[in-house]
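Worked problem 6 (solution included).
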Amino acid sequence: MSQGISVDHGEEAAPEPSRSFCNLRRTTTMVANATVIAAPAWPATMSDVQAATIVGLPILSLVLIYVFLRIVWKPVEATKAESLPLQTKDAEPVAAAIEEGEVAGDYEAPWTQTFDLVFTIGLGLYLVVLLVLTYFYHVEYFTTPAFWYSQIPKVLCMMFVSLLGGLICRAYCDVDEKGYIITNKNSAFKVNYTRKLQHFAAYMVPLVIHTSFSGPLALAWGDLFTMIGFFVLIKPIREASKFFMLQFNSLDRPEDRPNTLLWIIAGNIAPGLFILMFFKWLFASNGDLVFIIVFITGIGDGLAEPVGIMWGKHKYKTRALFSTRKYTRSWEGSACVFLSGMIFPALQYANFDNFTQVLTAMLILPPTMAYAEAIAPHTMDTPVLMVGCGIILYAITTYL
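Solution. The predicted structure is:
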């Protein structure tokens, strides 16, 4: 019987792989692919050397700035015959430099002949534009109470910041019969210390008070309600109410009169809000980088003024926007902007895509921001800093 069975060992088919083996191989392949996909990304890949660089550069810069401004370039008492840094001799006569605290004008002119009327008309036109855009793109906002309720905290926050600054001013300064602050260049307290509170709050409030409504149009509405906090400070309103006059005190630098609102709104707040709105959209997934712009202009440039007043020993002068007046600045104040250009990118290292971007920002922003602040027209330094900082950050995150 065994001889009737023919077995051809040469033609024997290879055994088919078992199903369990195929499943195991498929699982191994999927795990390998998942490992590649889930590879750690920045900042999880940051090395100790990179971390030390991010932390150490601002500290080293602070030490070098102190050595340069206090040891190498020793402060000297300037005389009238001495020229100041960055000051060129002009063949034509120019207006005398105005020191911090000196009164440059008054508010006797009718408000209809001042920027107050322009501001009122401009804000009204902005409201009309927003209403039209909302009708065509987000008509549901009109029937959504939550959207309008979410704007109230923004107005209240702006008023609270202004009120706090005004209370501080009133605690250290006298006021005239209408409620305006009275100071001079020898006053121990300057409105310069509280004025930047409004700058910082105006830029931060629309960004940090989050709601369920997002997008450029929602942010634009937030900017409008933020501006209402300044609109209530026009002359006919503030002079009719001690509450609003108190808020106005916190930003009314005597050396800016009678152009306080003109320079703070048209020269800083309004263009600043639109600039931030643009870069928030431009940065897309890296949108949180706009906080670097806000912190450099709000904190760095904000501290530059009080630091320059208290410790500034190396002075230079700059002109006001559309004016022949000259205003005094200091290298110590500009050093604050320099340091902020290094510190805030370091603090927001996680919002960049890699270490190269962080390091490049920390090396390029400090000198460019300090130089921009130094040469920018008086009261126009904020938009100049914002545009410059935004362009640099966009170039870094796009090409590196």
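Discussion: Residues 75-399 form one domain.
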